[in-house]
Amino acid sequence: MFGNRSFYSRGFTLIEVLISMVILAIGLLGLASLQAISLRDNQDAYYYQQATLLAYEMQDRIRANGVYWSVNSSVTAATTASCTCSGTSCSGCTAAQMAATDYQYWKDSVTNVFPAPTSGNMVEIKLSSAVMKSGCQGTYTSSLCLITRWARTNSTTSSTASKLSDTATYYLEVTP
Hints:
Helix content is about 50%, strand content about 15%. By secondary structure, it is of the alpha+beta class. It has a 3-stranded antiparallel β-sheet with strand order 3-4-5. Strands 1-2 form a two-stranded antiparallel ribbon. A hairpin with a 2-residue loop joins strand 1 and strand 2 (about 90). It is elongated and about 100 Å long.
């Protein structure tokens, strides 16, 4: 029975093992690639969550100072008009100073949470009717749009410079 085997059929099992090892290696490389993509997407989701939390915090600050924000749609001289705050209370502040302090706090928070500020991070407050984006439709004439922009870490390009120029934006409409 064993004498009838052909000379060429020897080692057939070894070739099968080598081919299966190559297929397994390719599969493992694919899993490693998926892991890297998953980590980048997870970082983007974290930044989106942080942008949401910081915008909602600023929304609360705007609503607490509704007297100023219902009349004004922007903060002027945010760095020079700030007042002294300790903990959660600010004493001796005008509504404009409080708004400037809140806006500066929001800017500083974004700078601390997101990648380097040279990569396109920014925050701004505009009238919603001037923005007209998803999330800021200008529902009311006095509604404001909080805009948070940051550099995304997930990009399909391989160039580092291109990854930094790819930005994401979060819009939140607020009615003071």
